[in-house]
Design a protein that fits this description.
Elements (H helix, E strand, L loop, with lengths): L3 H19 L1 H5 L12 E7 L47 E7 H12 L11 E13 L9 H15 L18 E11 L1 E9 L6 H21 L2 E9 L3 E4 L1 H6 L8 H15 L5 E9 L8 H12 L6 E6 L8 H8 L6 E6 L5 H9 L4
Parallel strand pairs: 5-6, 5-8, 8-9, 9-10
Antiparallel strand pairs: 1-2, 3-4, 6-7
Helix pairs in contact: 3-5, 5-10, 7-8
């Protein structure tokens, strides 16, 4: 029998998911939500949710729906106020924070953006798990004792031996009555994937541009983690030279030098060749820049991409974050040289409003 509380919880979850889906554009561009992320959950602030209901005022005999009334009569508590007046003592409306799992968030993102499921490439890895309890055995730790079966076994023994007293129905299991849950080791196939984030940190990339990258990378991670059980992330920053850093440094570093994009692509290739055999791994590089690059470096970038990087990746994604100081020319270089290449995806991100569309640009092909 389904308990009423379970039905209510299920109904509440559906309402919450519907509200998140309705306001997904707003939540995607809000960076503060990412700061509420835990290991498997994220807290989403939303307006207080009220279930609509009719409320009758039995102290009055007339009114709209209860007696006399004319078309156009106001429904409510009386005349509208102009918002001026003394301070009141009644409480106002309060917001609500709802915890939702990252898997549920990914499901909502996939439905709203109509993202196709990813068909992984490469061979599969094998992982052993021991957390599926499927059997019963006579020995085991007390923490896995099956209390219901143990009780029934003890009750049958006491009844059959004639020691069970209906007036004093106490059932005491002995060692022979105890049974324990057991598990089987199940081999599951999983695909491994790595996301390599690359970001230009030269002087023309400001805090606003980095915040856009931070928000978009969170949603990219959320979707890809729902598609791959084994997802790793690596971070590369570059100006005129490139280096690998941790996540915190990736979003906080700002340099004042020039820009040489090929240095980042060369480092990305070294990481892939050293740690991620492209026959075994699904590789996703995401490069974010304002489009500035040293003029003499563009040819080298195209060479690395066409001969080395693109053939070893599921897709190569380039997001151009517009700034007041960047030239914005690099995206045009990619589009001119890789027009026929389906595995190269480019997207212009002018502001936080464009993150929603950019995510679909990158993930919409299901590769």
């Amino acid at each position: 029998m389904v308990r009423k509380i379970d039905t209510d919880v299920s109904r509440f979850k559906k309402i919450v998911k519907g509200q998140i889906k309705k306001d997904l554009r707003k939540y995607i561009k809000q960076g503060e939500m990412i700061g509420r992320q835990g290991k498997d959950l994220v807290s989403i602030p939303m307006p207080e949710i009220e279930i609509p209901r009719f409320k009758f005022d039995f102290s009055k005999g007339k009114g709209v729906g209860q007696g006399e009334g004319e078309a156009g009569d106001t429904i409510g508590q009386g005349e509208q106020q102009d918002g001026k007046g003394e301070a009141g003592e009644n409480p106002g409306e309060h917001g609500l924070e709802v915890d939702i799992s990252l898997d549920e968030l990914a499901e909502i993102l996939g439905e709203e953006l109509e993202l196709p499921k990813i068909e992984p490439k490469g061979s599969k890895k094998i992982e052993s798990v021991k957390d599926r309890y499927v059997g019963i055995r006579n020995v085991g730790p007390e923490s896995l004792r099956h209390f219901k079966r143990t009780y029934k076994k003890a009750l049958k023994r006491m009844i059959s031996s004639g020691v069970y007293d209906e007036k004093n129905p106490v059932v005491i299991p002995i060692r022979e009555d105890k049974v324990y849950r057991s598990w089987v080791e199940k081999e599951v196939e999983q695909n491994n994937a790595v996301v390599i984030y690359i970001m230009d940190v030269s002087g023309s990339m400001g805090e606003e541009q980095k915040e856009i990258v931070r928000i978009e990378s969170f949603w990219i991670d959320t979707w890809l983690r729902s598609q791959y059980k084994g997802l790793e992330t690596r971070y590369i920053i570059h100006d005129s030279s490139a280096r690998e850093v941790d996540k915190d440094t990736f979003f906080r570093t700002r340099e004042s030098g020039g820009t040489k994009i090929s240095s980042a692509y060369e480092l990305c290739m070294k990481i892939i060749e050293k740690d991620y055999d492209f026959a075994e791994w699904n590789v996703y590089p995401f490069h974010f820049s304002d489009g500035d690059n040293w003029a003499g470096d563009t040819e080298r970038c195209v060479e690395i991409l066409s001969q080395n990087l693109i053939p070893r990746c599921n897709i190569f994604c380039y997001g151009q974050v517009e700034s007041l100081y960047g030239s914005g020319k690099f995206i045009q270089t990619l589009r001119e040289n890789f027009t026929e290449e389906e595995d190269v995806i480019t997207s212009v991100i002018g502001s936080k409003e464009d993150i929603y569309r950019s995510i679909k640009d990158f993930l919409g092909k299901g590769k």
